[in-house]
Amino acid sequence: MGELLKEAKVMRQSHSFKSESFTIYGSLSQGVDLMEGILEECRKHNVTSGMVTSIGSLQKAGYVLFKSDNGRPNGYGNEITVDNPVELVNCTGFVCEDESGDLDLHLHGMVVEESGKISAGHFLKGMNPTLITVEFSISCGYDIHANRTFNENLGFRVIDFSK
């Protein structure tokens, strides 16, 4: 068991930072993509890292789920779409920069159809247009940097935070 813990520590260290912060509150209008709209608001306010929460409604939803091999995640599966209106009942994620320094958004959420069927996953950019409105908040740290890069040991892009 001790060797397994040592291996896990080599793969990726847990980390956290305390920061002074500010919060942006807003809403997206009809037809604006959930992820692209939030990223545009981040650009407008010069935000490069923060935590996003949102609720609202979408014309349709597009997301992926991780796939696994022998009980271990090994990438993302096929795109999943819900091609009818949904309520966005829970959505959270992180604003960060990618390997190229471009603004990125890692966003997960849960939607419910009119029938009550619930779906959830890792949202995809350009596939989640607003139906009526999406209200959001972005909690931003003045001095926190979030960088999302591919971690070979884990096989996924992950966010590392720094001051």
Automatic annotation (TrEMBL):
<dbReference type="Pfam" id="PF03479">
    <property type="entry name" value="PCC"/>
</dbReference>
<protein>
    <recommendedName>
        <fullName>PPC domain-containing protein</fullName>
    </recommendedName>
</protein>
<dbReference type="InterPro" id="IPR005175">
    <property type="entry name" value="PPC_dom"/>
</dbReference>
<feature type="domain" description="PPC">
    <location>
        <begin position="17"/>
        <end position="162"/>
    </location>
</feature>
